[in-house]
Design brief:
Rossmann fold; 2 domains; 6-stranded parallel β-sheet; single chain; 4-stranded mixed β-sheet; binds nicotinamide-adenine-dinucleotide; 37% helix; alpha/beta; 16 helices; 452 residues; Dihydrodipicolinate Reductase, domain 2
Length: 452
């Protein structure tokens, strides 16, 4: 990207084959694993937008514009008019859950969207019924699944998910899978994840290192279906599944939707760093009362979430580069399950910073957010962009789609590469990727040509 000019004949040679991106014709099938608060808010939201009942606020694919060429060119089309994305009218939803509730019932239970809105769409939402899930309580302690698949080993369960995907494929033109299921217990990669061969043996011998989320992901990738991971679970962040993703041209991304507190962190921390302000402490606490909060009340699931939330500051501040400013940073995160609040999470951050000559200051952030209202457009965008990646020759076989880090708390990257957490760098990376695949000049913000 460095040194690329903003436009003009000289930089035309840098243009790559935008013509190669295949059009988004026909139906896009969206397979959602876990039809709880986020999933139902996304599905009901898409239907509300399709009916003209509401606007897709928070969705970059639906509302965002992208500047092309010079600032003086006045060319800023909507992203959805610039890249060939599936139209919302062409989305068909299905999925899995450990409970039998249809999307209407599950959305009513989640209490994110008001009753009146849901009632209007009831006949449609009732038609989306989850398939029986792959589930094992060992990996999510607080849930008791009743609507689950049976099999003699994990291989058989994977084959059943593959059969579900194949059946769905007959009804649509393309498929994407997204994990909106619960946070599983904390797991680290082990020998079973080191290669695809090991993983496939592990499926047969029921290796404990293979959690249900990995079984869905494996099935998707076997079928060439892109997979997004909205939870902090290990899932596709292993050598074995990255190998499968590349082999079958099934793009992947993860982990963990970047919605409330971490979203704010990755906005504020880059600002402190840009101004060379020190940070000695960052205390973050949350109350939430939805099912996600209940699952995270289990220490082993919380550990998975905590790891995902902790990473961002360390990478943004680069304490090894700026030891006087960030070496002694004390970072603490708490999530408290508090049922009265439901999905309306409240987050507090106390940030102890210091400036000129070391004088201390404080910043307090109190975010009264709605968890799933923030997450739903992210889930939608990930689905649409992964489908775009699958239709883009240059992206489809590279495995991890790092340009989608913008949406994720703990972005997956190639081995040995540190993740980019700064929201504005992530945003530039995403938009430059779109410009690149469409054969447009990248935007570097150098801008010297305006002063020639
Ligand atoms: N809401 C947010 O802002 C947000 C942000 C970041 C990440 N997340 C993550 O997204 C996920 C979904 O969040 P939510 O608020 O919708 O939670 P939720 O509890 O409302 O929904 C999760 C659903 O997944 C189902 N499930 C669990 N294990 C399953 C399995 N093996 N197969 C199929 N279904 C399974 C549960 O029954 C439940 O219906 C969680 O992991 C959460 O941590 C949410």
């Amino acid at each position: 990207m460095a040194g690329a000019k903003q436009s003009g004949p000289k930089s035309a040679a840098k243009k790559t084959g935008g013509v190669q991106v295949a059009p988004a014709t026909g139906k896009l099938g969206v397979m959602v694993v876990g039809m709880g608060a986020v999933a139902t808010t996304m599905i009901a939201g898409v239907e509300a937008v399709r009916r003209g009942m509401a606007k897709p606020i928070g969705s970059l694919t639906q509302m965002g514009a992208i500047r092309l060429g010079k600032r003086t060119d006045n060319r800023s089309p909507l992203i959805k008019d610039f890249v060939p994305l599936a139209d919302l009218n062409d989305l068909t939803f299905t999925g899995w859950d450990i409970f039998e509730d249809n999307v209407y019932e599950s959305a009513a239970h989640a209490k994110v969207l008001d009753k009146e809105t849901l009632e209007k769409m009831k006949p449609y939402l009732e038609t989306i019924k989850p398939l029986p899930a792959v589930f094992d309580q060992f990996y999510v302690k607080r849930l008791h699944g009743t609507h689950v698949k049976q099999g003699k080993n994990k291989r058989e369960l994977a084959d059943q998910v593959i059969a579900d995907i194949r059946a769905f494929k007959k009804t649509v033109d393309r498929v994407v899978m997204i994990w909106c299921g619960s946070t599983e217990i904390f797991m680290e990669p082990s020998a079973v994840h080191a290669s695809l061969e090991n993983f496939e043996k592990g499926l047969v011998c029921n290796d404990v290192g293979i959690a249900p989320s990995q079984i869905y992901a494996y099935a998707a990738l076997c079928e060439g279906v892109p997979f997004a991971n909205g939870a902090p679970n290990l899932t596709v962040d292993t050598a074995a599944l990255i190998e499968l993703s590349k082999r079958n041209a099934a793009p992947i991304c993860g982990k963990d939707f970047k919605t409330g507190q971490t979203f704010m962190k990755t906005v504020l921390a880059p600002a402190f760093k840009a101004r060379m302000l020190g940070v000695s402490g960052w205390f973050s606490t949350n109350i939430l009362g939805n099912r996600d909060g209940e699952v995270l009340d289990d220490p082993q699931s919380f550990k998975t979430k905590e790891e995902s939330k902790l990473g961002s500051l360390e990478y943004i501040f680069q304490p090894e580069l700026y030891p006087e400013l960030y070496h002694d940073l004390y970072h603490k995160i708490r999530i408290n399950y508090y049922p009265p609040r439901g999905d309306e999470k409240e987050a507090w951050d106390n940030i102890d910073i210091f400036g000129w000559l070391g004088y201390p200051m404080q910043l307090k952030v109190n975010f009264l957010c709605r968890d799933s209202i923030l997450a739903a457009p992210i889930a939608l965008d990930l689905v649409l962009f992964l489908d775009l990646a699958k239709r883009t020759p240059e992206l489809r076989s590279i495995g991890i789609q790092e340009w989608l880090s913008f949406y994720l708390k703990s972005p997956q990257t190639a081995e040995g590469l540190y993740p980019e957490h700064d929201l504005f760098i992530q945003s530039m990376k995403l938009k430059n990727t779109l410009r690149h695949i469409m054969g447009q000049d990248l935007i570097t913000h150098l801008g010297l040509e305006y002063y020639d």
